[in-house]
Amino acid sequence: MNARQQKKIVLKNSKNSTRALMIMSAVFLFFLLFTFFQIGVLHYAKGRQIATSDVTRFIDSTSNQPTRGTIYSANGEPLAEESNTYDLYAVLDSKETKGYVKDKEETAKKLAKLLDIKESYVLKQLQTKNVYQVEFGNKSRNLSIAEYEKIKKEKIPGIGFQKNQSRFYPNGEFASHLIGYTKKSDDLASPQVQGVIGVEQSYNKYLSGSIKPNKDPNALATSVTSNGDDVRLTINTDIQQLVESTTEQVSKDIQPKQMLTVVMDAKTGAIIAGSQRPSFNGNTGEGLSDMWSSLLYQGAYEPGSTMKTFVLATAANENSWKPQDTFLSGNLSIAGGKITDSSQGQGVITYQRGYELSSNVGFSLLEQKIGNQKWINALKKYGFTKQPKGDFDAMDGGSLNTDSPFSIINSAFGQGITVTPYQLLKGYSMFANDGREVEPYIVDSVSKDNKVVYQHQVKLSKKLISTSAVKQTTDSMKDLVSAEGSTGKAFDISDEGYQVMGKTGTSQIAKNGEYEDGFLNSTFSVMLMAPADEPKYIVYTYIMQPKTVMDNSMTKTLQFVMNPLMKKLLTNIDSSAIKTPSTIRVVPDFQDMETAAAKNLVGSLDLDYVLIGDGDKIVKQSINPDSKIVSNSRLMLVTNSLKNITVPDFKGWTTRDIIAYSKSSGIQINMNGNGFVDSQNVDPGTKIDQNQTIEVNLK
Predict the structure, then answer these.
(1) Interatomic CA distance for residues 17 and 65, integer angstroms
(2) Distance (Å, rounded) from C-alpha 238 to C-alpha 76?
(3) Residues 6+ apart with CB under 8 A from 341
(4) What is the model's pLDDT at position 40?
(5) How many CB atoms lie within 10 A of CB 679?
(6) H or E stretch including 615?
(7) Closest residue by Cα to residue 261 from 647, 566, 581, 632
């Protein structure tokens, strides 16, 4: 056989191999498509008919999804973490070798009690013909781990569970709109949890991890290539808890349409705390339908007199601020319209006194000294009327009404212009940074496998106003808080050794182009900075359309929120508001270890642990071996003797800690409230057994 004949044979064999490969690929593709057709259209799989509600379950159970990253506070405490829920189902097919429901009446009776649903409904589902399995509505879905374990313990024949990826928020209603919320993707091929608001949404690409097609040609699902990254926020849990409790108390008392309190590091822009009402519980979703948007950076509104500080700063920068010059307060006819002071004026007063009394007339005249176009240019320079670029999606940029000269003048006292608190905080930050604004942020860093892959860098603008203008503005802000009879005097805490500065604001609410009548149809706010000489913090709160006020005074209402918060911040002024990130630890396997040795080991790792029982050996631990946790996470170690359990001091524990302790010890703990444990009905150090119940109150 010559070379040419050999080449022809090789080519012929190559063509045959290629043709065979193409045929095999086509057959596999047909099989794959037919399998999906069986599941999605015919509801048929593994030789059995399945109910419509089980289609998603079948596909989900063949998918291997990445673990979503954990969101941590600045203190290193988990604020959102991977968890599981369970969907309960009942297998009806008698061919199922692992078990099926035989006694439908008895099963219906047990499940009705466990799921708190009508027995007749359960029985009707169990009597469904020609299906492999059935569910029992919403109450059989998204069961918690505790509910799952309680039902599983009953060992009911034919009852099974599908584990679902879910999200757990240890503190419940806690900076909810900032942290965000997740929902399961509608994509059956990749049913991952996806962020829909807040950091969960804007940093979803980091948190969600990645997946790629499974190399197994017989698989229907995808496989994990990389778990999600961890995100560390600037939220300080101690400050956040105080903000949550005061915001909740005021909200209950006066029932406002909206309320927001936020604390920012004046030098870096770090959002240390933020809470709003309406809010929601991330675990249950309760309250989310009342408001999806974040009041910090969405839903711009007319801010009122907090804008006067920017008029003053602009005038000072233009050498037009003469604080001792005078004007006639009360009423002003200008540009075809009329402007009035809320107090009907104080006669002839200085411009500084006009700032302290929040005179609309005085600041309309001051805006005219600056000039409409220069004022508009200044607003744009400060970041108003344009969309910010920050840590969140869909940030609002606000607007300015320039339809007439009168509208532009109105913006000098915060009407006819809409802004967000985010923009106000950014604007006020230039008074703490020698005329440079700092960009607010909430994500400090992102880590993958304990290695930082993103670290926030503080972003300062160019110098927007002169050093002299900054000093003139801050001097006036200090006087506003300290001067007798001023709008800010209620926030003066100098008698306790602290000096703050700031500005109050009140704005009418516009509806259908007209401002609503009535004192309470307004937005009330205050912006404070402290310490006054070298600002470290900027704190802002606003309340919109309350139904009533505390102690017959809106000032007292705002004071109730701001003064305790300012004192807390200033008391800790020597320590950083954003604590050093906690060290990541890998949890050892303590099981079967001598108790004494375990205590030595856990101590050397700087782990916060609780020893449960008085046995000489560890038999169980609350966090699995090889898990990666921050050093100040609380670990439960269970001994081989639970006859004498010493009750720990629960004060400061999170909901997550209490659940872990209850599950580890077997002691029933009833929790009242949200947040952190404030009190308990059994004293720390008391010896109890597993039959007793403990009550804890959270605030």
Answers:
(1) 37
(2) 12
(3) 329, 330, 331, 357, 359, 360, 361
(4) 42
(5) 13
(6) none
(7) 566
Which residue, 578, 582, 570, is CA-closest to 533? 570
646's tokens? 């010493």
* 372-417 pLDDT, tens digit each: 999 999 999 999 999 999 999 999 999 999 999 999 999 999 999 9
**Which residues touch 453 (CB under 8 Å, ≥6 apart)?**
206, 229, 446, 447
Check: CB of residue 207 under 8 Å from CB of residue 68. yes
Cα angle, residue 141 at apex, residues 138 and 142 outer, rounded to 5°: 120
Residue position matching structure tokens 């900027």: 538
H helices of 346-466, where?
351-356, 360-370, 372-381, 405-410, 421-428
- Residues 76, 581: contact at Cβ < 8 Å? yes
Rounded-to-integer distance, Cα 273 and Cα 235, Å = 5
pLDDT at 173: 94
- The DSSP string of 567-595 is HHHHHTTTS-SSPPPPPEEEPP--TT-BH
Q: Quick one: tokens of 503?
A: 């500005």
Identity of the amino acid at 579: K
Cβ contact 432:265 at 8 Å: no
Task: With cut-offs at 50, 70 and 90, classify the pLDDT of residue 125.
Answer: very high
Q: How many helices (H) and strands (E) does the chain have?
A: 19, 36
User: Token pair of 175, please?
Assistant: 């900076």
Residues 186, 203: Cα–Cα separation, whole Å: 19
Q: CB–CB of 358/305 below 8 Å?
A: yes
**pLDDT tens for residues 613-630?**
999 999 999 888 877 665
Cis peptide preceding 278, ω within 30 of 0: yes
Using DSSP bridges, classify how beta strands 693-698 and 668-673 pair: parallel, antiparallel or unpaired. parallel
CA-wise closest residue to 500 among 469, 538, 473? 538
299: left (phi over 0), alpha (psi -120 to 50) or beta: left
Q: Which two tokens stand for residue 295?
A: 């009041």
Please, what is the end-to-end C-alpha distance for the chain in angstroms? 92
DSSP 512-563: TTEEPPSTTSEEEEEEEEESSSS--EEEEEEEES-SS-GGG-HHHHHHHHHH
Q: Which two tokens stand for residue 462?
A: 């160019």
Which residue type, as a one-letter code, is found at position 638?
V
* Joined tokens for residue 6: 């050999």
- Measured N-to-C along each axis, helices 308-317 and 360-370 cross at an angle, to the nearest 10 degrees, of 40
Q: What is the pLDDT of residues 235-258, one digit of tens each?
A: 999 999 999 999 999 999 999 999
Coil vs helix vs strand at 71: strand
How many residues are listed for the chain in this entry? 699
